[in-house]
Structures are given as C-alpha cells and as structure tokens.
C-alpha cells in the first residue's frame, strides 16, 4: 500500500522494547494532539513507497523526529510569509517566496532540547518561530498550484529557531547561519495525513513561552499558501519524497517586540498547530568546550 492511503498519523518513536519504529499513532477518542500517543501500530516497509501497518502494537517510550535524518532530503524554509509578521518586521510584503535552507543536522524531535552552542551565546538574539511544516510525499516538478497538494504526504508543526544577530548581522546577507545550528529545526509531534487536513490555510497556529502565549494566529495569514509555495518551488526544481518545507511564522516573534524578548537558557518553548499537536522544547546552553 502507498503512503497516501495508509498513514493517518505517522510517528517515529522509541518503544519500551528499546527499538525504534515508524508507526501509526493510536489516539483516544476526542484526542487530536499526536504528542499524547502512548501506543502505535508498527509500520513495515518504505514509508514513501510500499508498506503496511502491521498488527504489532508497540508502547511509546519517547517520540522522535517524525522522519529519520536519512529519510529527509532537504529542509526548505520561507521567510516573511505571514502578512502581519512581515509588517512587524518592518519589511515590504514579498512578491515571491523568500527561500532559505537549513541543514539536516538542524532536525530535532518534538521533545528534544534546543542546544545553543557557544557561538550563539556570544550575543543576544535567540528567537522562536512556530511554523506549519509540509512534508512532500511524491516527487514534484513543474506542478500547477491546482495539483500541488496531491504531492503532500502530510503536515507537522515546527520551530524555526533563529538567532537574529547571526541571521542579520553576521551572515553576510544570507540567513542560513542564524538558523542552521544543530537542533534548530524541531518538528513533529508526528505527521498527520494530508487526507485528514481538508484546508491547510485555516489552521490555528501558536507559540507558548514558559506557558505564556506569545504567538497566536492562523495559517490564513500566509502570503503564499501551501499549494502556491509547492508549485513555485517545483518550477524547474524537483521536490523529492522526504523534503520538508517550513512555511513561515506569524507575528509575535521576540524580535518584533519592544523591547525585544529573547530566549534564555532553560526557557520552555511550545509550538502548536491545530489538529496536529505540540512540540515542547527546552532551551539548553551547551558547553563552550569543543568536541575533539
């Protein structure tokens, strides 16, 4: 069976038997937050190709990033893709999607710490960005907008962790340095099938910092919706199964406040997307000693 017909809520997890599995999350009636899954039906085979949900039900010890690093091809990200965020950033609305990339080493799970390495501790500027993450499930090239969502495996929520000093002042005009540190792309808590999300442009999206809501918006405020984004990015460029697209953040980021509100060591950041659930990550300053 194909990934488009079988997976409802794809998770990757460490089970109580010590093994790591892909699985279809089992949720109690009325529960939508995939992070609350305690059991899953183990998936056997290629999640992007032929596979089946087995009768093996495993107990979840820990949710991991929904895709293993080797199953992710690229991490594309959009900047300034929510109208109100562009305005709070005092930037003109973009005429075309503003694209940048994160390395796969930035990937992290929905409960992992956000490690802040020594260079990112040199100045203030650490910031949060809740984002809808679209996961490509079928190869796409030169796709019209009307067919773009047919290439989506599903959706997750992510945090485009950013350091504004490195992004805007130390990056030579490129954003990647300030957004690409290890562990700065936590996402999850699972991937909900695109078949279960009838309209990705009408989902509530939010961030809580230490329990206080700091971002509260809707994907309706996107300048370039998911379908338009996929269509644009596929023109002359092949999107592959396993590609992730972080689709931008709404207003309320720390850099948009007066005075700015930067993340600190020990802060707890929770990003949430309606119908999918939350990633909850602790900011952790790492040792300044290099690993030799």
**Overall mean pLDDT score?**
94
What would you call the quaternary organization? single chain
* Number of beta-strand segments: 18
- Main pleated-sheet profile: 11 strands, mixed
Fraction of residues in β-strands:
35-45%
Summing up helix and strand content along with how strands pair, one would put the structural category as mainly beta
Low-confidence stretches: none
Cα radius of gyration in angstroms: 18 Å
Shape verdict: globular
Short description:
With 292 residues, the chain is mainly beta. 8% of the residues lie in helices and 37% in strands.
Descriptive keywords:
globular, 5-stranded mixed beta sheet, 292 residues
Account of the protein in words:
The chain is mostly beta strands and 292 residues long. It contains four helices and 18 strands. It has helices at 3-6, 83-88, 164-169, 226-233; strands spanning 9-15, 20-26, 39-45, 51-63, 75-79, 98-102, 107-108, 114-116, 126-127, 130-136, 152-159, 162-163, 185-193, 204-209, 212-218, 244-246, 268-273, 277-285. The strands form three sheets. Strands 1, 2, 3, 4, 5, 6, 7, 10, 11, 13 and 16 form an eleven-stranded mixed sheet that branches. It is globular and about 55 Å long. The mean pLDDT is 94.
Layout of secondary structure:
Elements: H1 3-6, E1 9-15, E2 20-26, E3 39-45, E4 51-63, E5 75-79, H2 83-88, E6 98-102, E7 107-108, E8 114-116, E9 126-127, E10 130-136, E11 152-159, E12 162-163, H3 164-169, E13 185-193, E14 204-209, E15 212-218, H4 226-233, E16 244-246, E17 268-273, E18 277-285
